[in-house]
Amino acid sequence: MRDRRRCTAVRLHRVHRLAATLAVSGLLFGTAACGSGSGSARAGDPNTLEVWTRSDPESAQTYDRVFAAFTKKTGIDIDYQPVMNFDQQLQSRASTKDLPDVMINDTALMGSYQAQGLLKPITPASIAGHDEITAKSWSSTVGRDGRHYGIPYSRQAMTLFVRKDWREKLGLPQPKTWQDTLALAKAFATRDPDGDGRKDTYGMVVPGSAQNGYVAWWGSSWLWQGGVQILRKEGTGYRPAMDSAAALRTVTWMKNNLFCGDNGVIQPSALTSVTANTTNFQDGNAGMYLTGPYNISTFDKALGKDTYEVLPAPAGPAGNDVLADGENVYFGAKTGKAKQEQALAAFLVSPEGQTLAMTGDHQPVVRIPVNSTLSAAKVRDDPRWSVVQKAYETASVQFPNAPDFAPVKQDTADALNAIFTYCGSDVRSGLKELNDTLAGDLKDQELLK
Amino acid sequence: MSAPAIDPVRTPVTATPARRSAGKQRTTPARFDTALGWSDRPGPAWALRVLLCLLALGVFAAPFLTIFSGSFSEKASGSTLSFLPHHPTLLNFDVAGQRGIWDYFGNSLVIAGGGLLLQLAVCTLAAYALARHKFRGQALVLTLFMLTMMLPEEVIAIPLSLVLGHVPVIGVDLKGTVWGVILPLGAWGFSVMLLTEFMKDIPTEIEEAARIDGVGELRMLWQVILPLCKPALGVAGVLGFIMIWDQYLLPLIAAKDPTDYTVTVALSILRTDPEVGSGVVLAGAVIALVPSLIVYLLLQRSLVTGIAAGATKG
Amino acid sequence: MTATVTTPGRRRARIIGRRAVLPWLFLAPGLLLALVFKFLPMGKGVWLSFFDVRPFLGDQWVGLDNYTRVLTDHRFQDAIGHTLVLGVGMSLGGILVGSALALLLEGQARSLKIIRTAVFLPVVTATAVVGEMWRLMYYPTSDGLINSGLGLLGLGPVPYLDNPDTALWATMAMGIWMLAPYNMVIILAGLAGVDRSLYEAAAMDGVSLWQRLRHITLPAIRPALGIVLTLAAIRGLRVFTEVYVLTGGGPAGSTDVWMTRAYTLGFTRNDIGGASAASVVLLCVTLLLTVTVNYLRKRGDVR
């Protein structure tokens, strides 16, 4: 921190006041004076931890509060860097062999980071308060060698958002099964739930693009509910399982009923939609959305608290499991500062640390607390969060964490998007092809059994 | 459409007096001002032009009404378009302001202003050498400059990040300074190529005449060559500004802290921020496009005003 | 064309000595910046294409493995066709529409100034927002802007982006829309350099509009057209942003181009070596294309 202050003269946020003058000559002077204050100066300081999170400026402000509380409590300084292009920056730091001490990032990245040797193994017992994290959460940070490589920090699970006002107007019950969901979607699409006399509403919102693997992210809950596993664990390795009878049945059902069925069950352009441009639910022209709880504040603002309800996902043939994901705390693979890192992790998962991260004026960074003594609904004073928490605790499945799941997710998304696009295509051969591709991915990682 | 003022510099050289007197009926000068010889008097051709202009406006500009109206709408929808704002309000701009868009905007102004000055200076010098001097390896150098535009920046992101953190030889850390964004944009193949092409077209006689008068190289460039390629400079200015303004990855790589981000980065943050609606994103987009549009308006004159015509053709 | 002072005698030797260094002085800042901030990282990028990239554990030399993997991947092979169609279509469309706009909007009247500025809006708006806007204009139901227009003509709604047969063409239309005003600006600058007296002379001689365009305008805007063409050669095959913001390569990979594939490889699959190899392949093709275009152009100039 100290080094950075020294350079304020050239720092952009100070300079912008002079923007109108565009005084380049003035800036010239500044650079000469500054420039040598890189991260390495702090790296040696045993009492400072360099912490990275993948955050935009809004959520960074929440982290700022959390870390300030930590420093106040322990006297350990935090050099906090919110990074948007996290992986790029991490790779460039990795090639200088100088990693941040602590990182907070997606659960799904653990396999990839571990394979690249970026992470330090963690003994849960070394983290104070480790027993307040459930075994289910801890099990999601086990790497391919059986050791833990992350500390659970925040979790979330998908739930179904339904337009309550529409549903009640049409006199239909809350959906409990896939069939209910489908019937409700059709009713939303055809029975003019918004009462404007025009056929301009849709049953359900689907981010169905293959870009960044979205259709696999959204579709995985349906796969779990249909009894499908994308990868099956076998001994110390995995086998792809997308050629199973369950997969054929489930994907065929989705294709026939959601994507190629009656018009209006899902929103138009679903096959090229990603979450950022799928706004039909908050715009009030679609009635259901299976998605993560981070949308609650958006929907409250756009639609109003009373117009919609948060429900557990309706059950398919094999139950109502949904996809769970979240963020972990990772320790960068470097020596020293173990005590400080453990102290920070203990604070982050403590009731105090978790509560701070769930509240405040800026965007919360913890959705469902991993600390089992906390209730998301109580902390937020919002009973809807108990639905999410219950879904996470009792009916959720994470993507396998040991392999680098990114290629698997992307290939699954490419295949599903193609199957759902070509309504006349043969699902069986599409899935067979996917299964072969997945086998190749696992082979690349030397995990194929 | 008013008749354009005749450039005083041009008049003496333009029309050969013999022809003018021998000419049939003298039409308005506007007829000779455009390639297609558009007339500014009402008539069938004039009507056709008006019609085509309306078509161009409809195709290229009308869709923007939806962006403007969305940015002023109380509740902009991300799934339908409308040409008129719902309950006009400035709320979206307020929210964008709370998210710090004006700070990012200031960063962008500094970077785009400084970057453009550097880029124009560097590229003009290079183009002058390439267009007005003969030397070995000329074609290779031009190809090298064009090569800078060919490799996708995503691929060089990680190595570039290392270079910015520790510039070879001098070992300076440019991250967190505006130089980290400005310097990599200094040599833009497009501007070099554009200015080279236009400078090549200036006849040798002009240069030779000046040389006989003992004009040095820098003065030659500044006082003889540059005034003759104003349209090209205008293009390099407008498109260079937009190119720098639109940089997304580079400011991210060069930033040390979110306060270093630019307005283009801020826009993408707004887009993925679940707490703000599409109205705020559109407000951000409207704020972000204003400077480029102003630069275009300012430099537009040099784009279309013929340079002392006749003077350029030997 | 280029200036060379042909002073005879002994002065010549001295001048040539000085003149040989001079251009390099002028080139130095540009070449230096390009070397440090472009070629150095670029060389490293090319170098990485021969490795299994693991920055922390140490990169592993894999020879041409990344290249064979990319070139034999059927999704990359599928992308070649899309890239060619999209690159060529967008470039040619952009040049044609851009030229038409420039010819239409040339002139100094204030009304023209305003129209030109309005037409320039697609270039100055953030690409992501443009993408979002076009997604809505392409809305596949009769509520969509374009489809409601078609509805007035009695034509049924077209599922532009939802249908793999039309998605590529829809993307191309947006690409041309973004590119045409950009090219317009360059061509306008070319038109500004045309000697007005030649037009007047041509009118006296009673030549047709076509001849006038062909023999006066075209030769004069050759540099501008050359730039637009070279630009098309450099950027055409690198088409990425337009696809990324509009369709993300979908549906069913029907708009996947070389760069979206490379991006997916590098970013969602963390295969930096593979992404570098894919980019180097593209770089080589682009370089070849650009050099060819320039060669043909030079030959045209001489003729």
Task: Indicate the CATH architecture of the largest domain in chain C.
Answer: Orthogonal Bundle
User: What is the helix tally of chain B?
Assistant: 16
- The separation of the N and C termini of chain C measures 13 Å
Rounded to an integer, what's the Rg of chain C over CA atoms?
24 Å
Lateral arrangement of strands in the main beta sheet of chain C:
1-2
| Order of H and E elements of chain B | HHHHHHHHHHHHHHHH
- The residue ranges of chain B in which pLDDT falls below 50 over 5 or more consecutive positions are 1-28, 308-314
Give the total of domains of chain B.
2
Structural class by secondary-structure content of chain C: mainly alpha
CATH class of the largest domain in chain B: Mainly Alpha
Helix count of chain C, per DSSP?
Answer: 14
E-strand count of chain C: 2
**Biggest chain pair interface:** B-C, 124 and 114 residues
What CATH first level of the largest domain in chain C would be assigned?
Mainly Alpha
- Which fold name is given in CATH as the topology of the largest domain in chain C? MetI-like fold
Total strands of chain B = 0
Structural class of chain B: mainly alpha
InterPro entries (chain B): MetI-like, MetI-like_sf
Keywords (chain B): Cell membrane, Membrane, Transmembrane, Transmembrane helix, Transport
Membrane topology (chain B): Multi-pass membrane protein
Protein name (chain B): Carbohydrate ABC transporter permease
Structural write-up:
The complex is a heterotrimer of chains A (449), B (314) and C (303). With 449 residues, chain A is α/β, with parallel strands linked by helices. Chain A folds into three domains: 2-33, no CATH class; 47-157 and 325-398, Periplasmic binding protein-like II (D-Maltodextrin-Binding Protein, domain 2, 3-Layer(aba) Sandwich); 159-323 and 401-444, D-Maltodextrin-Binding Protein, domain 2 (3-Layer(aba) Sandwich), CATH 3.40.190. Chain A has 19 helices and 13 strands. In chain A, helix 11 (214-225) crosses helix 18, helix 12 packs across helix 18 (405-421) and helix 18 (405-421) runs antiparallel to helix 19. The N and C termini of chain A lie far apart (49 Å). Chain B is mostly helical. The model of chain B is unreliable at 1-28 and 308-314 (pLDDT under 50). Chain C has 303 residues and is mainly alpha-helical. Chain C has two domains: 9-41, no CATH class; 75-302, Orthogonal Bundle (MetI-like fold), CATH 1.10.3720.10. Chain C has 14 helices and two strands. Chain C has helices spanning 10-48, 65-72, 74-105, 110-119, 121-124, 127-137, 145-152, 167-192, 196-205, 209-220, 222-236, 241-246, 258-268, 272-302, and strands spanning 51-52, 60-61. The chains are: A alpha/beta (449), B mainly alpha (314), C mainly alpha (303).
